[in-house]
Structure formats: structure tokens, C-alpha cells
Amino acid sequence: MNRPTFPVGVDVFVVRDRKLLLGTRIGTGYMDHTWGLPGGHLELQETMKGCAARELMEETGMMAEDFEFHSVVNDTARAPAHYVHVNFVAKHPQGEPEVKEPDRCTQWQWFSFDALPKDIFPGHAKQIELFISDKNGFTET
């Protein structure tokens, strides 16, 4: 039996002094110039925490001691696209964010929870809403 496949995105909440790290996305052709979390696609045979660590390093040059599960968002709102986003919180992030993939992100910036940008990447908006409201678990869009 053939089953449809769809990507699993692993995204990371990096927080310092009650500020969330977001980057300006480019190069995808979809919703360029919106703000998004560090993260990317889970690779075959990769652990989810391993993916979170890899994506954080590849995109920002930062590391963390560990990654704590936060939530899963089953995103079917952008049909025909379908993503499952698995979200982690970086525990004790180290380093300063740098643009490591300039073809995918133009800048990293810290935003206080009460002053987030309005133009957040739609695929990350629900995740950030859950995080800011301190709700974890599972949701669907």
C-alpha cells in the first residue's frame, strides 16, 4: 500500500531574559521575510533532539545543554501542504546567534514575549502562541 508522506519539522524555542529568538526567513519562496523559529526537517534515522541540536547549530551557531519537549502541532491549514511540527525548548542555550545560512535567514533577533513581530511565519504562529501561553502538548490547525 502506498501511503502519502509529509515532512516533520523540528523547531526550537530559544529564550533568554524572557525574550524569544526569531529569524527573518528567506529563500523558500513561501512567506519570505516573515519571522520564524530556528529549526528544519527531521532527517531519516535522526533523533528529534539530535535534529533540534543540529538545526540550532546550523542556523545560529548556538548550542544547548539539552532540549525539552514542548508540543506537537499537526498543521493541515495550508492544504495541500501538511506538516507535523515537533517543538523543543533549548535548555541553557550557549553563544550568540549568528546568521549561518544567509540564503535562508537574513537576521536573528530577540523579542520580548509581549512585543512579538506581527509577521510571524504561519507554520510557527500556533507553536509560538502555545509557548507564550505556557501550554504544551498537542494541537491541530
Broad structural category = alpha+beta
* Total of DSSP H or I helical runs spanning 4+ residues: 2
In helices, the fraction of residues equals: 10-25%
Mean pLDDT: 91
CATH topology: Nucleoside Triphosphate Pyrophosphohydrolase
**N- to C-terminal separation?**
27 Å
- The Cα radius of gyration reads 14 Å
Global outline: globular
| Total discrete domains | 1
CATH A-level architecture: Alpha-Beta Complex
Q: Which short descriptors sum up this protein?
A:
single chain, about 140 residues, alpha+beta, Nucleoside Triphosphate Pyrophosphohydrolase, 5-stranded mixed beta sheet, 4-stranded antiparallel beta sheet
Description of the molecule:
- Helices cover 17% and strands 36% of the residues.
- It has one domain (8-140): Nucleoside Triphosphate Pyrophosphohydrolase.
- The chain has a 5-stranded mixed beta sheet, sandwiched between helices.
- The chain is built from 2 helices and 9 strands, in the order βββββαβββαβ.
- The two termini are 27 Å apart.
